[in-house]
Specification:
The protein is of the alpha+beta class. About 25% of the residues lie in helices and about 30% in strands. β5 and β6 form a beta hairpin. It is globular, with a radius of gyration of 29 Å.
Length: about 575
């Protein structure tokens, strides 16, 4: 490809509205342009990277026996109503109405569509298991689209769905896809860690996220410093052995705490540690009020609370609701003499002796409070976020935190959708059974951004060879010099004939501009045709290491092939 005809509008300045490196570099390198918030046009460089990633995905999935299909992006509302997700999915579901007043959604995911397809196509155990996948655009009406391709409203995704007669078959496919994902991300040059995760709006039980480690990741990973344990912070279990301090119980007292409403302010006012304070939260759990207790230095993990109680909907009470239900303002709630609701506590409460809690009275707190004597807990559970320094849940080492970008996730859906949409099969005895399902997603466009987050320097992108838009960038440094243009053109064609993807910078620009753009675009190898062109010599630079060597044009092809092989290893 000759750059003089190639649509790659590079930029010198960092765009003011681009907060993360991948967004900045994709804009500056002429890979994407924004159409609206969270919606982008993929320019030729980006499309070439996406095709490389899609090719890796297809190769790995085809080897597992998965079959590629294409489903519509426009979904009739009836399917989503049948699954119960038309309302439950929330505002992220993009809804529209056609000229006949029929309601549709732009697909954010395809569980309903694929389940209805298999329901109508397969009815015997003899045709299962089955695994199908597609690569297409998805749509989610994100409240705050940001970070370029990391959180958009339209994005490219690979989603696969498997159907099974039993749990053993589903477990086997889950492992096959888990391993295929590990190979896909490794081939794409991503440093990825599989972590235990929550299934979210899709449903199901067992699930792992594949997190690309990066400084700007929107998710926090809790991992052990001495084992392979890793989990999304929302799912990391706390395995702390709490013990009650051996100290005499003091008489409870009511004290004035003035305008101190936060844990920190109360701790400073009373000269106590935050871990001695009982944090009380009024929470609506499936439309019933409950009081949740945690240690003052801990934070409520609402996903754990939801799972612990088997609840569908959980939310914190508003200030107005706290005043109406408890009779005081936020910051002075406490568990003493609370009537008409359950009291649910994190295990950390067991470690508090002679603690502090709100008195359910303005500007008042109790001190020397003790569970069992002053209040009763109905249920104890693991309700808090894990913290750095906590013991690893697998008993090996301690917990450390890292940021990660979710690039893929695998789920065991079970019968969540097959039962609701009637996807059944006849077993060996002629009895109708619901199919078990697995779901497997990869954020293809998000992978592009994740690769850049992990592979860049101060000058631009540093592409891994497997997903680079081109293998080699040939620069004709002075197009007015006939010998340079002649050699550059010869080099360009010889590399192409050797089966390499080559970008030839034949623009009438200064050498400095071409060098800057080459570093910004970040192809694995750069070949500069300059002052020694009349002698047949060119300069080869390895983008990743900065290594520069002079090579005669006759030896260029094997040299380039060897360097690319080294970079791929």
């Amino acid at each position: 490809m000759k750059q003089s005809f190639f649509l790659v509008p590079t930029m010198r300045e960092v765009p003011a509205d681009a907060d993360v490196v991948s967004h900045q570099l994709m804009l500056r390198a002429g890979m994407i342009r924004q159409v609206a918030a969270g919606i982008y046009t993929y320019l030729p460089l980006a499309r070439r990277v996406i095709r490389k990633i899609e090719s890796i995905v297809r190769e790995e999935l085809d080897q597992t026996g998965a079959q590629e299909i294409t489903m519509p992006t426009l979904h009739p509302a009836e399917l989503w109503q049948e699954s119960g997700r038309w309302e439950k999915y929330g505002d992220e579901l993009m809804r529209l109405t056609d000229r006949h007043n029929r309601q549709f959604a732009l697909g954010p995911t395809h569980e309903e569509v694929i389940t209805s397809l298999i329901r109508d196509s397969i009815n015997s155990y003899k045709k299962l298991p089955l695994n199908v996948y597609q690569i297409q655009s998805k749509f989610r009406d994100e409240r705050r689209p940001r970070f370029g391709l990391l959180r958009g409203r339209e994005f490219i995704m690979k989603d696969a769905y498997s159907f099974h007669t039993g749990g053993e078959s589903l477990d086997e496919m889950y492992k096959v896809m888990y391993d295929a994902y590990s190979r896909i991300f490794r081939r794409a040059g991503l440093n990825v860690r599989p972590v235990i995760a929550d299934s979210g709006a899709i449903g199901g039980k067992d699930t792992h996220e594949f997190m690309a480690l990066a400084d700007v990741g929107e998710d926090t990973i809790a991992y052990s410093d001495q084992s392979d344990y890793a989990a999304n912070i929302e799912m990391a279990a706390v395995k702390v052995n709490y013990t009650r301090p051996d100290e005499p119980l003091l008489e409870r007292e009511l004290v004035d705490t003035g305008d101190a409403k936060t844990i920190r302010a109360v701790a400073e006012r009373l000269s106590v540690q935050e871990e001695k304070i009982i944090k009380s939260l009024l929470v609506s759990i499936d439309d019933e009020w409950a009081l949740i207790l945690l240690r003052g230095d801990h934070e409520l993990n609402d996903i754990k609370l939801k799972h612990a109680l088997g609840a569908s909907d959980i939310r914190l009470a508003t200030e107005e609701e706290v005043l109406e239900v408890i009779g005081t303002e936020v910051g002075t709630i406490g568990p003493i003499d609370v009537k008409g609701m359950k009291v649910i506590a994190d295990h950390g409460i067991k470690s508090i002796v002679n603690g502090v809690c709100g008195a359910n009275e303005s500007n008042k707190h109790f001190v020397h409070v003790n569970e069992g004597r002053d209040f009763t807990v109905d249920t104890y559970a693991d309700l808090r976020f894990i913290q750095e320094g906590d013991p690893s849940p697998d008993g090996k080492g301690t917990i450390r935190f890292a940021q990660g970008i979710e690039v893929g996730q695998v789920f065991k859906l079970g019968t969540v959708y097959s039962e609701k949409l009637g996807a059944t099969f006849l077993d060996e005895n002629g009895k109708s059974q619901p199919m078990l399902m697995g779901c497997y997603g990869i954020g293809v466009s998000r992978m592009v951004a994740a690769v850049i987050e992990q592979h860049h320097d101060e000058d631009g992108i540093v592409w891994p060879t497997s997903v680079a838009p081109f293998d080699v960038h040939v620069l004709a440094l002075n197009v007015k010099k006939e010998e340079q243009m002649k050699l550059a053109d010869s080099v360009y064609h010889s590399l192409q004939q050797a089966g390499l993807d080559v970008l030839l910078d034949d623009r009438p620009e200064r050498a400095g501009v071409k060098f800057k753009d080459a570093d910004l675009i970040g192809l694995p190898l750069r070949v500069a045709v300059g002052k020694r062109a009349d002698e047949g010599y060119v300069e080869v630079k390895v983008r990743k290491t900065g290594e520069v060597i002079e090579v005669h044009a006759d030896e260029l092809v094997p040299t380039i092939q060897a360097k690319l092989q080294q970079l791929a290893e």
